[in-house]
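Internal ticket #5521
Category: modeling
Description: The requester needs a full-assembly model to guide mutagenesis choices. All entity lines are attached below as received. Residue total reported by intake: 769.
Assigned to: D.W.
Attached entities:
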Amino acid sequence: MNAIAPPAANAAASQPIGGADPIWNAFRAELGKLSAQLIVRLLAIAAVACPFAFAAVLKVQSGTPNDALFGVYVHSSGFAVSLVLLAFAGNWGLPVIAGLVGGDIFASEDRHGTWKMILTRSATRTDVFVAKLLAAFALSVAFTLLLALSSILAGIAFMGANSMVDLSGVTTPAGELLALTVLSWLLCLLPTLAFTSIAILFSVATRNGIVGVLGPLLVALITQLLNLIGKGVIVHLLLPGSAFLGWHGLFVEHRFLGPLVISSLVSVAWIVACIWASRHILRRRDFLTSTVESRTNWRAPVKAVAATAALVAVLALLSNVGPTADTEHRLSAAIGEEFNHLTLRQQELIGRHVPAGAKLDILPNCNRRAAKAEGPGDWNCSLNVYLPQGHAVPFSATSVEYDVSVESDGCFKASSPPSFIGGPTMKDVHGDTVTNPLYMVYGCFNVL
Amino acid sequence: MFAVRASGLSKRFEATLAVDGVDITVAPGEVRGLLGPNGAGKTTLLRMLFGLIGPDDGSVELLGRDLDGLGGEALEEVGGFVEEPSFYPYLSGRANLELLARLDGGPSRAAVAEAVAKVGLEGRGEDRVGGYSTGMRQRLGLAAALLRSPRLLLLDEPTSGLDPAGTQAVTTLVRDLAARGVAVLLSSHQIGELERVCDSYTVMQSGRVVWDGSAAELIAAAPASAYALATSDDEAALRIAAAHPDLRAGRARRGGLALAVAADRLDDFVLALGDARIAVRRLDLLASPLETMFFTLTADDGAAVAELEPEELAETVTAAS
């Protein structure tokens, strides 16, 4: 038997220039592929340019995105711009990034027929899987941070680094706002990775890039729909998108971290479950000829859609299970205290003296017109104000009516006709136009 | 030590038993041809050897290492491809090779350039693979295989889409590598191409190995081959042929004679023609021993091959192969 000797002509080719770690080598290869793709480059450009474009548009028009928390403050503080973008990103932007980054990273190998090329090199299936996972996570994190940095810079550049009223009606200084805004974006990394993991699972399970990219968006849509219909707190906290709302608890006077901690742990659970399932599927997979696989390729997306529909139905049925998140007591307490802060803030802005520790005597009464007084949706709050200080007019024994839109996570937006509390802006004591703090009231209470 | 030692490999896809208890070995320096009609299980077998498909039963040992079904270290120094090579269309040929090389720990850029040149793609290495022809992708696949400094090459239709010069170059390359001790398992439908490079053959039919042996054994075991013969006196040649019991002869439609005879018996007949002062003006091989053997082994009624008229034999066998 002849001894097997490597061909002399190829000796140079055996000199490694990369590291000895196959995962690191595969990770670099994945990054190389991703960075060469047009969609990834466009995503990077969008992550930088969109916040600046958004801030620029806000700057040249007088309207404000009132439906988003802090939306009414976008002209007075650059941090509001970043937080409004964060709210939008949590609903759609970050799931889109997760889908585009993670949804095609496995399925593209099926589309190009390249599994047979990369799995017949020195890297094992596990090496390739881990490398792809890390590459998708790295890009998701990079784009999220890019979006965060860009939104903060754009907000400051166009609107200034000014203080702003928080979700309890208390004015927060710029430095603290910056820290909280950065922290809020960082806290969204975990749910972004959860959505990236979901995209990867769709990609691996269906071998279809379209399903992989659109899957996280579908999950985000389902999350929002379930948040609209269910009043139970358990299902809401178990949804992968809930952690995108966790930062709300940081912007109140008495910070509550329970929902944030739970939803972050839920994100970790989604990540672990999706990775485990993806790894299991890939490990057991037979890589057949493309013609054999194309015959059965339609089945996986159909199964995925059917499974998703079934899951939605189950979640919808369960969405009322457990304690109610939004109660009359919680809402009344939160909006009453906040109205107190904001009224005093308004008095200060127009130059009236507000003694330290001053507190209005407010009796809030919140109800729903056509439903039991619990759960997310439209509420109505009457704030009966009694004045302990005789000179603090004009709210003596006045009743202020607010229409309140309450979210499943305990955050609300309250607005009242201008005849009660004035228009969106007002003149302060210096004659400058400022945001009327009572025009649109944003608040949050702890649902646990 | 064998470069490839597979024992009892089986794989079932739903109701279809694609590979059924296959044993195959390839020694260092040996070029083994893997033959079989479509659906015989060749590609499934190659995919199992590459670890792309996990066998239901049996074991694979490559270069002395057990293949656990998932590739990795067991595929060190194993090169090749299964079906036509696929690459990322948005990357250049060179970038594709560098990416694959990186998965191996990364040969130098010079080695990549050398591989590109070796397969005749210099000047096109910077072009995106999306614009490559089938033949160019085939060449790139060979370059990707060579980058690994392989001691074992598993090649599936390596000359598919190549022009005659490219086919010749691949044939020469395979023989050169084998001369340096590289083991090669070569699957192809081009029987003539296999005959030029293979030392041994494994013939598969319906997932099973129906014949396995060296080229010499195959020639010895092969049924009669078909030849076209033109002589100075075809009528006399037919009379002489009738005196040779192992030879069947008849008139060809396009003129001349058609013969069906084993290779070792052909010499006797040609010498007899000479003794009768009949000149042999042309003697062409129409169906080689490998082709007739392949057809005999894989045809629905292989035994009937022996009954075919020579010209019919040639037409049938060459059409089938």
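Resolution: model delivered.
Comment from assignee: Residues 328-444 of chain A form one domain.
Ticket closed.
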